[in-house]
Write a structure and sequence with these properties.
With 195 residues, the chain is α/β, with parallel strands linked by helices. It contains four helices and twelve strands, in the order ββαβαββαβαββββββ. Helices cover 17% and strands 30% of the residues. Bound molecules: NADP nicotinamide-adenine-dinucleotide phosphate. NADP nicotinamide-adenine-dinucleotide phosphate binds next to β1, β2, α2 and α4.
């Protein structure tokens, strides 16, 4: 169960990532590939809200945040919480610092942020993904299948395909095989089934 307290307002928690053939997601702190349209899809997805005025709370591991291009900030419709056990102040362009994932969920689901937060997006890396996959409010995993081999040092965690099932089509998600820079990839959404 979530220990966000009795005043918590349930918010959808969603993961977003792209992984190549060996489930690799990163190399030397960065993405292993250059897929601009996939990156644009990522940006569009995490900054989309269905109700004007609402925002998404983006949860970043410290390394992911540090690798994100500063030139793309601020991102529309978003607030940023950075996870770290070492930082003592909120990084530039971010709004919040938390020492664990549950703290970030509590932040987004209780007053006053709960009034404006639509979705809590988990941007990575590995530890935030692992924890979020176990969270009862996690309903969707956006996981682009990059159909190529890349040398990686960071990997998307294994998850239970009986709990998160691949859906055939999903609103706002292009279907079919995409191709860019000679690399094939496919947008995928896994949806948690009722247990
Ligand atoms: N392909 C994709 O879709 C994708 C997505 C995300 C990331 N990536 C790649 O993955 C790599 C980065 O991921 P990563 O797993 O190495 O690092 P990360 O999660 O971004 O950063 C690790 C740091 O974040 C903090 N942290 C993480 N989880 C925490 C928690 N639960 N509580 C408190 N602090 C926490 C800690 O910071 P302190 O050391 O300050 O305590 C930890 O050392 C990069 O190569 C990136 O490009 C790829």
């Amino acid at each position: 169960m979530c220990d966000c307290g009795e005043n918590a307002h349930t918010k959808p928690i969603r993961l977003i990532a792209a992984a190549c053939n060996n489930m690799g997601i990163g190399k030397n702190g960065y993405l292993p590939w250059n897929l601009p349209s996939e990156f644009t899809f990522f940006l569009d997805t995490i900054s989309s809200v269905s109700t004007p005025g609402m925002k998404n709370l983006l949860v970043w591991g410290r390394k992911c945040w540090e690798a994100f291009p500063e030139s793309l900030l601020p991102l529309p419709n978003t607030m940023h919480v950075i996870l770290s056990r070492t930082l003592s102040s909120v990084p530039k362009h971010a709004q919040y610092l938390c020492s664990d994932l549950q703290g970030s969920v509590k932040l987004g689901s209780t007053h006053p942020l709960s009034e404006v937060i639509e979705t809590i997006w988990i941007i990575g890396g590995v530890e935030p993904y692992i924890e979020a996959l176990q969270h009862p409010w996690c309903d969707l995993v956006y996981l682009t299948d990059v159909q190529a081999d890349f040398e990686c040092d960071t990997y998307f965690p294994e998850f239970n395909n009986n709990v998160y099932k691949l859906v055939d089509e999903f609103p706002g998600v292009p279907s079919g095989i995409q191709e860019e820079n000679g690399i094939k990839f496919k947008y995928q959404v896994f949806k948690k089934v009722a247990q």
